[in-house]
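This section describes the prediction task in plain terms. A model, or a person checking by hand, is given the sequence of a single protein chain and must write out its three-dimensional structure as a string of tokens. No templates, partner chains or ligands are provided. The sample shown here is typical of the held-out split.
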Amino acid sequence: MTALIATWPLAAQLKSAIPLGTDPEATVPLFTLWTLWWTADRAAHGFAAYWDAPFFHPVRGTLAFSEPQILTGLMVAPLWATPATPALIYNLAFLAFLTLNGIFAYRLARSLAIRRLPALLGGVLAVNLPFVAKVHGVLPLIPIFGMLWALEGLVRFKTNPSRGHAAWAAAGFLVQFLVSEQMALLFAPLAAAAGLLSVIRQPFLVRPCLRLAVAALLALLVGRVAVYPAQKVREQAGLARSETVVRALSASPRDFLIRPATALLPFPRRAEPMDGDTAGLFPGVMLSMLAVVGIACGIRLRSQRAWTLLFVGGIVMGTVAALGLNLVIGGLQPFATLRALVPAIAQLRSPYRFAVVAQACLLPLAALALASMEKLLSYTGGRTLVTCVPLLAAAENLSIPEALRSVPPTPATAWTSWLRVRPTSVVIAHIPFPAGMHVSFYEVEAWRLFAQMHHEKRMVNGYSSFFPPAYTNLQLAMARDFPNRLLLCTLMSAYRANTLVVDQNWIHEHEPVLNAVVARGLMQPIYADGDVRIYSLVPDAACIEFDTRSGG
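The expected answer:
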């Protein structure tokens, strides 16, 4: 129920729309929807060619260029065999993650010996965490429950260093990794610190250390095996983010004083387009105040002191790391050093997302504050006050109405149905190509991936977090200069395309030159409807010569 309230009016359009969060375009959620479908499709085929996603043809291993979200895809895989619409399948995963965030915030609070009511209210705060509300359009950034799960296991392990608690903590980190590699990476420093804390001052120190180490190694091994092909592709491709991009997506101190653009309350002010993608990291007045009270209460309690200090450290670490390349100390950039030393950090595009670790650490501290309030205000009205305060804190951080984008009930259209029954050797290029590099230019490609869910043919086009090295040059040349003989020959020889799908609205502006190319015999029309025309590509002698020279 909390998740439905926090995302209203999504509940009224579960079958027909998906959330955008603060993003104005649907590029990322549509691509994520495609990824969920692809995992389900490949699972039904024993994961054959799983990493060789059918876009950016003929590049291999293209699924590795983005978050594969293996576990998320498997969670919803059975739903693709039902009448459920694509939007409904996506939304069920989305709402499940928000709900699990709340459940595991509750469990973490309970592991800290916090009573049920304040623990439950801490779970409500987790569902509506401001950072999560900001990124509702990026499904891999929604689940933080694996972090909370791992922390719960480590808290319990410190009290009772059993194999079960060690395995529970390791399972939490593994699940976080399999639903979101990036979020697991952001959480890793805090997880390591919590692991050390859980074994400090343990009686018979060697045994607890071994149990926790074995559980952690097994989790890392399973995670490594699951994504090893992807890591190999990334290493071979030398994928890394440019310093310019990372700097642009590093937070500034003022970003922590701005609410997400969709926030219900306007104070402090909401993020505006001119603020950039990093703005909107304000955690909320009441949540912050509860956390401060929780720190004061936790430090006074010997049983809670160590964990309270750990959560404070997590807040500091998450906030400082979110500054990324904008943090300069004595002329040095600590994050630049990390990028040089740690390959996974070099692949991280958005340091500002470390802020999620800081906000996640506010939750158990807020629950500690609520537990102390409940204890102090034990008279009749005390429980009412303890209930109202966090509910007001959650209401303060509401980001509604949720921005939504309508999604057709099926990717099937007349032209995808026609293309679906063509031979498997068909490789398409969809015209026009995007004319720019910003994510907004690629929404058209995300819709083409949505169409691919029905026609299932390989494409030269595509979208991902990383792009193949040579693809950007082709894309911009196609957007600027198509159609001409050189580009057609390049599509046929270098990219093995044999079919063009051309949007009718583009044809209206380019029909004379397109007809001239058809007249020269390089293209033959084979299908047309109100949405697209489809052409087969026919290499002439010049293309064959070009193919020979290019080594094709």
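For orientation: The beta strands are 17-19, 404-406, 427-431, 458-459, 499-503, 523-528, 532-537.
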